[in-house]
Amino acid sequence: MNKTICLLPGDGIGTEIVAQGKKALEAATARTGNTLTFTHALIGGCAYEATGSPLPQETIDACKASDAVFLGAVGGPQWDSLSPDKRPEKGILGIRKALGLFANLRPALLLPELAGACLLRADTAQKGLDLIVVRELTGDIYFGEPRDIVVRDGQKVGYNTMIYSEEEIRRIAVIGFETAMKRRKRVCSIDKSNVLETSRLWREVVNNVAKDYPEVALEHMYVDNAAMQLVRDPSQFDVLLTGNLFGDILSDEAAAITGSLGMLPSASMGSSSPALFEPIHGSAPDIAGQNKANPLATILSAAMLMRLGLNMPEEALMIEKAVSAALAGYRTADIMEEGKKQVGCEEMGDIVASFIEKA
Ligand code: IPM
Ligand code: MG
Asked: What average pLDDT does this structure show over 275-303?
């Protein structure tokens, strides 16, 4: 089978890490006989420099013409003072909206090989950490109207609108419960229904969807409590079902406590293809171009792309196994441990690809 993948390397370390992810994709498909065609497009700061827009129409067209989109990262300090519609982040938000990617899946897993990197106390880490944040991605206060900064009574005020419709909540809840059915069958739905109307509706709709999943144990948790429980005992969580803003915050927290932000992949999916796959970390401008970045989150995103984006589970498993094999002997600087050999971004990509070739 031949599939087309649109590469969006973006800014900062994006180019380096996407190149390593591409190597893994090529190595895995070479083993199975599937073939991939790669297209390239600009997003973020580099797109703004080249075209004046962080998300040119050609990029949207190239993504829509592909079977899956593979993104690096966007952003950098040189673009921080641009107006909101020109900022690199607008590229990401825009492509999510343009492709209708309403469901963001962010697994946080403490790999046994990396237990030493976990930020939690050893007795807490021992209990394990294997959860997935299922985050709504095209609604909420991120996109809600009206929004503005205006002058009222002689001073500036800024405002945004937190808003969810029943249908927006229902479809992400369905993804949450479906995800749980393939895992440990537990959903913890996150809200702030003690304060917010949107959250009260969220809870009502999630309760309704839950009726279709009698096997799944549903629990509701306020977002502040969830932030605390995540560091106190993350082993209690299987699927964390969240709105856009709460999921943004909790998914960074979940990733950080594993101790290896450079390890975690993500998928953003809609009701039709293409879906988009990217590491959850940012563009790390401070180490860009220095061959220091950890490409494993991107390589693991490539595995998610094969499994969820192209329905090629065999390749996905090959890539994941190769990452474990590489970790046994080699580390990038961010996850370096005694007894391992430290390697750069490109070497790590080569090592993973060679394990795929040997598998
Ligand atoms: C993320 C990022 C984005 C978000 C930014 C870059 C707009 O933080 O993917 O979590 O807030 O969604
Ligand atoms: Mg974020």
From this structure: 96
